[in-house]
Each structure stands twice: as C-alpha cells, then as structure tokens.
Amino acid sequence: MSKTKTPMTPEAAARIQSSTAKQNSGSVPKGSFAARAQSGAAKNSNSKGGK
Question: Are 32 and 20 in contact (CB under 8 A)?
C-alpha cells in the first residue's frame, strides 16, 4: 500500500456517497465512511480557495 496521501475530491466523495445511499434505501448513515468522505472533500475544497 502506498504511503502517499491523495486529498479527497468532491467528485470522489459524491461517488462514495451515491453508492452508500443505494445500499441503504437512499440514506447515508451519520458517521459512515461516505459522510466522512464528504466532510473531507468539503474541507479540502475550502482550503484551496483563500490563502
């Protein structure tokens, strides 16, 4: 396994969240990997914008 970290992108998070929702009758459980991926993508997206 690679030790290089790749930042979570909004596109990747959307794919993960979509797959999770399909498996759970349309919902994404709080604290699930999909929810954490979406949060990480939002943080990465926000950190690129300003400073």
Answer: yes
